[in-house]
Amino acid sequence: MQIRPSDSHVALHRCYLYLIMLVEAVPHGYTAEQAPRTRETVGPLLVAALRDVVRSGMSRWRSWTAVGPAS
Predict the structure, then answer these.
(1) Is 62 helix (H, G, I), strand (E, B) or coil?
(2) Looking at residue 51, what DSSP letter applies?
(3) How far is it, in rounded angstroms, from Cα 52 to Cα 9?
(4) Above 50 in pLDDT, residue 60?
(5) Alpha-carbon torsion 23, 28, 32, 35, what sign?
(6) Sign of the C-alpha dihedral computed for residues 52, 4, 13 and 33 taken in this order
(7) Mean pLDDT of 38-66
(8) Where are the domains of the chain?
(9) Which tens digit of pLDDT belongs to each residue from 39-52?
(10) What's the CA gap between 22 and 70, in Å, rounded?
(11) CB 46 within 8 A of CB 19
(12) Cα separation values, 30 from 34, 45, 54, 64, Å
């Protein structure tokens, strides 16, 4: 599957959204039932979005995953 640059941009936005959804569970006071359900739902979506970012061939991302942040 060929991923266009615009696809990587959308994937990055999805990553950001999913991270917010995970982090904001605490300040929003999710119940003991809601928090695990959110992690189970959003976690795999975040992983898929991160895979899309990697597949997009973003060299900066690849550099960071291989040796740490790019200079």
Answers:
(1) helix
(2) H
(3) 10
(4) yes
(5) negative
(6) negative
(7) 77
(8) 5-67
(9) 999 999 999 988 88
(10) 26
(11) yes
(12) 5, 19, 31, 33
Element (H, E) at 41: helix 34-55
| DSSP character string of 25-36 | TTTTT--TTHHH
Q: Residue 46 half-sphere exposure, CB side, CA atoms within 13 Å? A: 15
Report residue 11 as tokens: 């994937």
Question: Residue 23, SS3?
Answer: helix
Comparison of pLDDT for 41 and 5, the residue scoring more: 41
CB distance 56 to 11 below 8 Å: yes
CB contact at 8 A, 52 and 4: no
**Span 21-32, mean pLDDT?**
88
Tell the residue number behind the tokens 């895979």, with chain if given: 51
